[in-house]
Amino acid sequence: MENILPLAIDSVELNRPIIISGPCSAETEEQVLTTARGLARAGIKVFRAGIWKPRTKPGGFEGIGVPGLAWLNKVKEETGMKVSTEVANRGHVEAALEYGVDLLWIGARTSANPFAMQEIADVLKDAGKDIPVLVKNPVNPDLDLWIGALERLYNAGIRRLGVIHRGFSTYGPQIYRNHPQWRIPLELRRRFPSIPIICDPSHIGGKRELIASLSQQALDMGFDGLIIESHCDPDCAWSDRNQQITPEVLGVILDNLVFRDAPVPTENLVHLRRQIDQLDNELIEVLGKRMNVSREIGAFKKEHNMPVVQAGRYDDIMTTRVLAAKSMGMSEDFMRSILSTIHEESVRIQVELNNKKQS
Ligand SMILES: C=C(O[C@@H]1C=C(C(=O)O)C=C[C@H]1O)C(=O)O
Fold first, then answer.
1. Which of 5, 129, 189, 313 has the most CB atoms within 10 Å of its CB?
2. Each residue's pLDDT tens digit, 322-336
3. What is the ipTM of this complex?
């Protein structure tokens, strides 16, 4: 994906940070227009509203459907905002294009489905419509699947592509509705620096209280914008009421966010980055030495017919190193995750050695 173009609508590039806001679902014409007026007052330029809602279970509100597209048109006429909605199949795309929706996004359940993605790419190609499209991360933390979804659209000629980071599904109770796993969007940024990343703190947090801090975190990580759910009367929303905020609250949150976009002369960083380069080299050297010792231990185990994994020793290592790391101001989780990765590789090397035929 060499030729990604900036996100622009009607040849006007969206200013960073790109802020998209609107209700989770379009419910009534009045709710859509009242919310839109509040958002326009708060300076929002791109309105969002779900028209077709992929719900976890049947029986919930599954979206207002095509009549909602006419309300989006009214939002455009009255406020001048651009409008966006989620599409999940051929019919949705055709209807959205017919009603002049300015920007489309693909939901997390759809981007996880290559058949649906190909169908959407095909209909956009057939329509010859060059429209900006944002692709939410798939529900499962699979970067290649996310990239695959983007590639299908790119191959269909869509060049104004972006992504939405909405967090990843996990099982069991936790703080976030969808765990952010920031390293996944950051890896996408590393591989495709020109694809804009928009954070969706509403779906990551699942609660109003988390929106401000998640938004700031995303901006601090260099994300290009935010998509935040907003409703004129959040407590009465027909879907996702816990994570919606009024346009007025959104205005306050946005006023308090710090967008760090000043071009900093990189010379200031050169010295520090040299230190990081040097330290990384030392880390690699030390890790190489550690793996060599593990190889020797593996050879000994093979000779004496000992099992590779030694749970007691591993537990000792984990406990002592985590304590040592903590005393140096590092997080316990961080050290645990590093050690488990190192241990996994060390065990892999010893198992490989065991499986080698004696020559
Ligand atoms: C290196 C060994 O083999 C395995 C790998 C370990 C490691 O790399 O730290 C620790 C315990 C074992 O599960 C060992 O037994 O000491």
1. 189
2. 999 999 999 999 999
3. 0.95
